[in-house]
């Protein structure tokens, strides 16, 4: 007799980590303002937001207005709680002013490989 594992509940204390991906198109000539705003935001989030583990900002090598921000959280719920907060909206406002369009993707980390 075989058994099928139940899907992992993402709303428990043992919830898997969350990975957030923002695909961003900047307004023309706003790279410097965007990077300055990101610099302010990343330190405040890293030091003050529960559940935040790390983030990266990446620029396309062929299109300087095309960007990606990824962040990792100890659970997707922690990110969603922060994203819904007034603090989040206030903090990212200077970045938002530089963005022409953006798309957000949210993932639950199911498997992870790290160096031995």
From TrEMBL:
Record InterPro entries: ABM_dom, Dimeric_a/b-barrel
Alphabetized PROSITE patterns for the sequence: ABM
Region forming the signal peptide: none
Gene Ontology MF: a single term: monooxygenase activity
Superkingdom of origin: Bacteria
Cross-referenced Pfam families: ABM (PF03992)
Keyword entries, A-Z: Monooxygenase, Oxidoreductase
Stretches assigned to the ABM domain: 18-107
Name the record gives this protein: Antibiotic biosynthesis monooxygenase
Protein's organism: Streptomyces triticagri
């Amino acid at each position: 007799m075989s058994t099928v594992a139940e899907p992992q509940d993402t709303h428990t204390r043992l919830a898997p980590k969350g990975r957030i991906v923002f695909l961003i198109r900047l307004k023309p000539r706003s790279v410097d303002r965007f990077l300055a705003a990101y610099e302010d935001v990343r330190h405040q989030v890293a030091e003050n937001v529960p559940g935040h583990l790390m983030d990266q900002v990446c620029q396309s090598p062929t299109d300087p207005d095309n960007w990606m921000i990824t962040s990792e959280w100890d659970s997707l719920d922690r990110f969603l709680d922060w994203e819904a907060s007034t603090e989040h909206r206030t903090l990212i406002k200077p970045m938002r002013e530089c963005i022409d369009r953006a798309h957000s993707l949210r993932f639950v980390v199911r498997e992870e490989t790290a160096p031995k």
